[in-house]
Amino acid sequence: MSSKKIYSQVQNELADLGKVSMLRVIPDVEDGASRELLFKGERLLNLASNDYLGLASDENLREAAVKAINKYGCGAAASRLVTGNFGLYDELEQEIANFKEQDDAILFASGYAANLSIMDSFADRRSVVFSDKLNHASIIDGIKMSGARQVRYHHNDISHLKMRIESFRDVKSKILITDTIFSMDGDLAYIEEVADLCDFYEVMLIVDEAHAEGVFGGGKGLCFERKVSERVDLHMGAFSKAFGSLGGAASGNKDLMAYLRNKGRSFVFSTALPPAVVGANLAALRLVKDDSSRGTKLLEISRELKTFLQSEGFDCANSASQIIPVILGENEKALEAQKILMNAGLYVAAIRPPTVPKNTARLRLSLRADLTANDLAKIKNGFVKLKKELA
């Protein structure tokens, strides 16, 4: 295809996306992690960030980042396996392992990179990987990259999962990977039942706790809250959500971690995270480890707001976390609702396909532990207004 044909095809596809309200642009946002962000010159209450505990602006993290810069400089300059390593990095990995009650841990540039490496290391063309239909894109992409056979099961449908596993019971290399909190629905995996099936059929169990860490299980994640953590082979988490910083992490058995350190391409071939980020990560981890009350408060706020929204007739699906969807169906309706809430002083993400299934466009409320009583009243008033204007 000539370059001119490529341009024409791109232009046509962009036009098609615009016709169905699916064309994405980067919003004109500043202070996007703060409790209040700046959007086109106006201050709006931020209900779209994943900074669940409000740690991104925490003074402890700021000081730790500056201290790391002063000691180590701005960049790692190489892969960890070459020269891009500092004592601070080893210290963080050890504290992650201790926090998660595992033998060892590995730090990655992002949660996305962690999932790519995990799948690429432990799955291959001889493997079958069972994956919840609503798993994060990084999991899906990791499975594709590995060359394994992806076997998707209906979301949180244990009977369907059992049937799927049963049909591949003779395959030697079997892996199941699931989010523990699903990022667009805010509901929880039936992790106890999933672990039971993995034990019975001898399936390697990998969990993505990116949206659960810092909030559930004293900050350790849903598997710890549900007391199944010891039955999980590999735990994945992210510092970019409740911990207010950046980076992904995997933890587990020392041999699995050694294998991942050798085979994980996004670890082996990536420059290490900057020292400032690692310093902030360490400070955030220690804050959560020493005091899990922010996560407890966040879940209380979330339950209260979901109950209110449902009482107003909004569809919040099966959310049981700090992520609350308000499902509206049509793309245009979700975008209209977003504008109405902006006029009420609220910034809420409008999520459309392909991020969510067709005809389930929604608002995604991403709540924070630092919301005040006045903030909650403002949110409730905004949705009362939204209900009237959408009627």
Automatic annotation (TrEMBL):
InterPro entries hit by this protein: Aminotransferase_I/II_large, AON_synthase_class-II, PyrdxlP-dep_Trfase, PyrdxlP-dep_Trfase_major, PyrdxlP-dep_Trfase_small
Gene for this chain: bioF
Keyword Disulfide bond: no
A Gene Ontology molecular function term of the record: pyridoxal phosphate binding
Residue ranges constituting the Aminotransferase class I/classII large domain according to the UniProt record: 44-378
Any Gene Ontology biological process: biotin biosynthetic process
Keyword Transferase: yes
Name of the protein in question: Putative 8-amino-7-oxononanoate synthase
Cofactor dependency: pyridoxal 5'-phosphate
Transmembrane segments: none
Its EC number(s): 2.3.1.47
Alphabetic keyword roster: Acyltransferase, Pyridoxal phosphate, Transferase
Pfam family, one: Aminotran_1_2
